[in-house]
Write a structure and sequence with these properties.
alpha+beta
Amino acid sequence: MVKVQLQRAALRRIRVRGPSVALPLVLGFLSVAAFGGCSDSADDTSSGINGIADSVERPIDRLSEALGEARPSDRRSIIELRAAAERASSALGNARRDARDLEDSAEGTNEEKVRELETALGDYESLADALSRSPLGVTAIEATGERARQAARDLRVALPTLDTTPLVAALRRARRKPAITEGGASKPVGPDGASSDAPASVRYRNYDGPAFQAQIPTGGGWAEPAQSEPTAGRLFRTSVRGPNGLFVIIDFTPFEPATFGGSFQSKTQVGQTAFGSATRYVFQGGRLPECKRSTCVDYIINGGSSGFGVLAGGGTPSTAAAIAEKVAESVTPAAEYE
């Protein structure tokens, strides 16, 4: 009996002392587990960030090489630039999605780092998209290039840099020349596709319109271009009048495609430098008095939700046709419409 009582007393002493000894041990174990878990999570996030950055390093490096070799006058280099930009854009898009997934599991400072990486990848992707477009837009490349540069500077993980400055400068130089070119004859047009009139020699100069660049007739007998808005805010017109009743009109519709209205003698799909193709209409009649008296040529050029129309007439049919063709082929949208 005495032995049993002594055992019970010992147990009571253990129960009293137990919490004071065991609680620090338990708390110590939980603290180690908690800090160990945070460390593992941080390591996983850092590893994920580095892995995402590594996945885009090679495509960006290749794009950087193509960007350095690109010359507006070298068609092959521009094709290679666009191909490298498309590959980089695809890789950057995949990496950005990976960063978004990683952000869902990150916490605190790590979450902020992942968000910064995702934003930087988006800026790089925007630049790659701008470099893959046809035609290349100077303003778009310059703006997205600057955002990508700032993103690379501020980011806490290293990404290869992309320098767009030489290409932007070269594109601007290419747009400024030649100042004057000699116009040649276009293929004869008319109801039967033939004309015996030889087109007169016409000089052209570069012109910056309200939303486009183009070559317009200049020299003896040609007036300076006049601007008007037949439909305020929706139809912008540039008119150039020349000798012997010749004229050319460039219409721009920023919010809808251009269309041809009325009857025509012929309709032909033709090439166009900036947009790839255009539709040429040959007709006589309509609202303009000049087109009621003689054959006119109208080029309808559309890209996306906006469009251009280039109409020429007066003088001889072959001269008007040559002017319409020259101007229509040279029309390039301003950067904000590219």
